[in-house]
Amino acid sequence: MKRTRILGTGRYLPERVVTNDEMAKLMPTSDEWIQQRSGIKQRRFVAPGQGPAEIGTYAAQAALDAAGLKPSDLDFIICATQTPEHQFPGTACFLQKRLDAPGIGALDIRDQCTGFLYGLSVADAFIRLGVYRRILLVGTEVNSTGMDLSDRSRHLSVLFGDGAGAVVLGESESPDCGILSVHLHADGRFAEELWVPAPGSVYQPRITHQMLDEGLHYARMNGKAVFKEAVTNMVSAIKEVLAQNAMTIDDITFFIPHQANMRINEAVGQMIGIAPDKVDHSIQRYGNCAAASVPIALDERVRAGQFKPGDRILFSTFAAGFTWGSAVLKW
Description:
alpha/beta
């Protein structure tokens, strides 16, 4: 069976850098408090009017350029986001319009911070089976326009940033390199531990003034539950992907976890026994960019020339839902 490899990577980070001190001017917090609890030093916010489709297009074009391809060379588009352009249609369609690549399939993935790995799994299956030859996978997020800047959400709003990352995927010329395996999981029993309650089609009407007054249109999180389940399940998923590919952690060249909290990444790294200098901590510069975090970090490393043929890159993510997953890629 065919194997899938990355043909090109790209990212886009908005120009506006927002430091912790600037966040402290917007809500009751401090640089020390944010860094101690999350490791974040700064994040990026979009300019007024920018949405996930626009910044996703910039990342997508960078990935296409790296692959030496044009939008017309694509067979399929997958867009992972927890901050959609509109309720419908899907953000992938808006992104497709901007790329001027009409006619091909455009799919939205709504698995929040695990969306990139879910999208990677879908793309991998399509390419392995020969359904499509070249697939664009984009993770893109605009979190800044949906933040609650009041005291009730200061522990959550300081975590997020805006950004987009993309990969172009295609058939590997060698059966020995590319995506080795992707492993996906979810547990809906925890769905209300990290969620945005409103608006929702379960309500009639879907949004009310009372909901707005109560801040139900902002994210809510049980931090202790998220931390515990994230560490436990990411470690479990990593053990699963290593076992599937007859590897140990010593076989891994570099580990790119989802950038939700530096303390989570450090705890996971310690539990799997990987050297600290092999773990990505781009959260310090960009905050939590949800589905865009992993492809942003990957593109940074690729463009820095960090990976060479044969290197094994480990991914693991955790997200609202709860959803989580892991993957190993042989460069």
